[in-house]
Design brief:
Blueprint (H helix, E strand, L loop, with lengths): L20 H10 L1 H21 L4 E11 L17 H16 L2 H11 L22 H17 E7 L2 E8 L2 H59 L14 H33 L6 H5 L2 H19 L3 H26 L5 H40 L1 H39 L4 E7 L12 H26 L6 H8 L13 H36 L1
Length: about 525
């Protein structure tokens, strides 16, 4: 026959269920003090921290970094290094932090504001300029306050390409002064950090250029000396050499095909149009009698010859285009003076004929000169192969050194352009969106954040202790638990005998839990009352 159950044991209302919410609540309620005591104490410690913390004020400025895409091939666009705006912002944030927390930067702010005296002052406004020389004691104080100021500086991202630079201090006025000077010094240092590397690179390239110029001059002197020693008339004043003879022959062939084929047909067509307009079109000799036209034609001969040799193709093409425009204008004026009776269309056709005729004359002279120079150089190669080989070596050396000099000139021009772009803030600049102001409300203690942290911490500690006590409880609370654990039927129960042994066990268990709760609450108190105020 079954004995009545011990009144201290709990009967399960749903023996077939694997989870009984009521049983969990009953267990939780039996251990409610493990939850209520830490919960209340943590909230109380948060209140004490809010009341006892020293108010901390922050003065901050906002800056916006503007990246403008540059289409110039000379100016390097720094933003193209990054694939996403977030990558650009991370790089910029790191750069700002590196500058404003650098030892020299922080010490300069301390000296400029005279913070080492204990009270920061605005330079040139609240006490004059800082002294130029400091005593050893003042220098030691500068280094000490620099370490303190470094911990007060805050750099955060406030949006896309927007950053905040602030200073925290127990004095709102002092936080404003320090933030104002930090912002001014940062703008100067950031600009210098962008300009200085390019200046150093340009100065180094300029010094190297002098070496390249000297090397080129040595090679040219050796080439000229050898040419004088060869005493070959075919080389005197001949610009054709082993380095450009192949290109010159190709260009000569191309221009000859144009001169003797398409140009002949075009000339016949224009001459026919001119003959229909005037009975006797002007001759080349008559047009070249004009000094202005003759000078431009002479320039065209030289430029066409240089183009055939492949000398500085971009520059020659530009100058050639400008010379053609000048020649067209001079011919148009000459035709207008000689044939005032012609209409606009007829005068335009006659101008085209005269321009083409004169320009073809210049190309003919350039072709003849180049063909003659190529023949002379090849004759020299055939008659004196040894001297020709040595001459080619010297010419190759001159060409190589000239290319090096041109390369370094282009690099210097690139660095100069980038330097000027940096100084004028093309493609990259910093805008100050908000100046520092004297704060009216402290940023610490943050009552909302601290209360939320205390609530979350107390809730975690209380629930954690309750769950831990349930997991560590090895006693049986119902007959069903005994039967499930032992897999034997229970035929009877006996009441708990409250003797001295059981009381001592209970006292030890309660003592262990008290020690555990006190230790956890001590850690929470250290965080809320000591660590958090210093982190703020």
């Amino acid at each position: 026959m079954n004995e009545p159950m011990d009144p201290f044991l709990e009967e399960e209302s749903h023996p077939q269920s694997s989870f009984d919410p009521l049983a969990v609540l009953r267990r939780f309620w039996r251990r409610k003090w493990l939850f209520l005591v830490p919960f209340g104490l943590c909230l109380a410690m948060a209140g004490v921290a809010i009341k006892t913390m020293t108010p901390i004020y922050q003065s901050a400025s906002q800056i916006r970094v503007v990246y403008e895409v540059t289409n110039s091939r000379l100016i390097a666009d720094e933003s193209r290094r990054f694939r996403r705006p977030a990558d650009m912002d991370r790089e910029t944030l790191s750069t700002i932090w590196t500058i404003v927390t650098g030892p020299k930067f922080v010490e300069s702010v301390v000296r400029e504001t005279q913070l080492y005296t204990g009270l920061a002052k605005l330079p040139q406004a609240e006490g004059g300029a800082p002294p130029e020389t400091l005593t050893p004691e003042q220098l030691q104080a500068v280094r000490q306050y620099a370490g303190i100021l470094r911990q007060k500086i805050r750099v955060n991202q406030a949006g896309e390409h927007i950053f905040e630079i602030g200073v925290r201090d127990v004095s709102a006025r002092q936080a404003f002064v320090l933030a104002r000077v930090v912002l001014d010094r940062f703008l100067e240092e950031e600009r210098a950090s962008r300009v200085t590397p390019r200046t150093n690179t340009r100065d180094f390239l300029t010094s190297q250029r002098a070496t390249y110029v000297e090397s080129l001059q040595v090679a040219e002197n050796a080439l000229a000396s050898y040419q004088r020693g060869v005493l070959s008339e075919s080389l005197v004043g001949n610009p054709v050499n082993a380095a450009n003879v192949v290109a010159a022959e190709v260009n000569l062939q191309r221009l000859q095909d144009q001169y003797y084929n398409s140009d002949v047909n075009e000339m016949a067509r224009l001459e026919q149009q001119a003959g229909a307009i005037v009975s006797a079109p002007p001759a080349v000799s008559t047009i070249l009698g004009d000094p202005g036209i003759a000078q431009v034609v002479q320039d065209l001969r030289s430029l066409e010859f240089a183009r055939l040799l492949g000398q500085e193709e971009a520059t020659v093409s530009t100058e050639l285009g400008q010379a053609r425009l000048r020649l067209n204008g001079l011919v148009e004026n000459r035709v207008g003076r000689d044939y005032p009776q012609l209409g606009v269309m007829d005068r335009n056709r006659l101008t085209q004929y005269v321009y083409f005729m004169v320009y073809r004359e210049a190309k003919g002279h350039a072709l003849e000169a180049l063909a003659r120079n190529i023949r002379n150089f090849k004759d020299f190669q055939t008659r004196q192969p040894v001297q020709s080989a040595r001459l080619q070596e010297l010419q190759d050396e001159v060409t190589a050194r000239r290319e090096l000099l041109e390369s370094i000139d282009r690099e210097i021009a690139q660095q100069t352009m980038n330097l000027e772009a940096s100084m004028s803030e093309v493609g990259y600049r910093i805008e100050v969106r908000k100046d520092p102001e004297v704060s009216r409300q402290p940023v610490e203690p943050d009552k909302v954040r601290l209360s939320f942290m205390a609530f979350a911490l107390s809730l975690a500690i209380g629930c954690g202790l309750v769950v831990l006590s349930i997991l560590l409880d090895r006693t049986f609370t119902s007959v069903i638990e005994i039967e499930r654990s032992l897999r034997l039927p229970v035929i009877g129960t006996l009441p708990v005998i409250q003797d001295e042994h059981f009381k001592q066990k209970r006292r030890l268990r309660v003592l262990r839990w008290i020690v555990l709760v006190v230790a956890i609450l001590s850690v929470a108190a250290v965080f809320l009352l000591y660590i958090y105020p210093r982190l703020s």
